[in-house]
Predict the structure.
Amino acid sequence: MKINLLKSGYVVAIFIIVLTLLGCGQKSDKQVATSTESNGNKEMQLVNDGKLTFAMSGLLKPLNYKENNKLVGFDVEIGEEIAKRIGLEANPVTNPWETIIQGLKGHKYDAIIGSMTATEERAKQVDFSKPYYISGAQIFVGEDNTTIQVKDDLKDKKIGVMQASTYEEDAKQYTSSIKLFSSDIYALQDIPTGRLDAVITDRIVGLSIMNETGLKVKAVDDVIKREEIAVAVNKGNEKLLEAINQAIADMVEDGTYEKISMKWFNANLLEK
């Protein structure tokens, strides 16, 4: 009898040990998912775990601007949709445009989703996604101006452009009289006063400012050059770039992109 009890106790002990080992060796689906997500976040080199932190100037209405202390606009909604599709919380932030690339390289944020034109010069410092909209440099003049109708009419005229933008190089093709501004709206406001003959800026930005403010300015001629606007990430962050590109492609494919674009511009900005 004693022998049987001892054997029974031995079996029970072994059974408990096995169960314990099995419990230690297995993870729940939730634990596995959390672990996988955490590893994915590390591979994307995120500034804040679980969040996609993306920067913009916050001064380009309706692309990105503040309303009731909250960032809103086309860029913001595109960024939010990208974050959602990657499985991250969207965290839009602002940074002065003239130092926005330095902020990215300094790991203040994960990406720039702020209407940045993908150029060869910038591509030396950052990696760009596929374009999320197409635009171009547009000439704006006073509503009653009849002397500037085509690009060549800009010769030796006073032209305003946004500081640290690609439009300064465009202006240099026509004149040496160039004035830099911290935002496009300040530049456009100088046209009716006569302090500027023209402004070169993004067509979409200029038209939006015209509609919002009622400034007596107009767009003339075709765009100077086609520009591809893309998301910028730090060089070497291939996992994040791949995820962003896939999110953009999926948005276009299922119609979400067009819905956002039509909401803000009544046009599909990738078809321009």
